[in-house]
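Q: My labmate handed me this sequence with no annotations at all. I'd like to see what the chain might look like in three dimensions before we decide whether it's worth expressing. Could you predict it?
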Amino acid sequence: MHKKLLKWLPAVFIAGCNFYLSSQEHIEYMPGFWNADKLVHFICFAGFSFWVAFACNIKSYRKIWLPALIISLWAVTDEIHQSFTSGREPSALDWLSDTTGAVLGAAVFVWFMTKILKALQEHRERSDRA
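A: Here is what I predict for the chain of 130 residues:
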């Protein structure tokens, strides 16, 4: 039971950071190129989704819809939250960047776990032969 709750800590931490940053009127140190915020959204929400996939124990590409959906819904609430924050406004393009990042983040998690599990299996097989 505690292990399952602990698996959510990285995702909860990122959610808290996201909420805090969404509450700020202006975020300093953003990259200065055109539409940089979309790239930042994409990368941050990909990482968020990676850790939600970890917490949900996603093991196949067919199941990446779950963390992607969770993050996409979070992104909707994030945009609503920004509509109440002075100096900020909701953006459908931000939500799209968040959701696209979420799909990639969950897929990267599955790819990463597949590689790790394959390496562990190969190690066990080599150990069994020795």
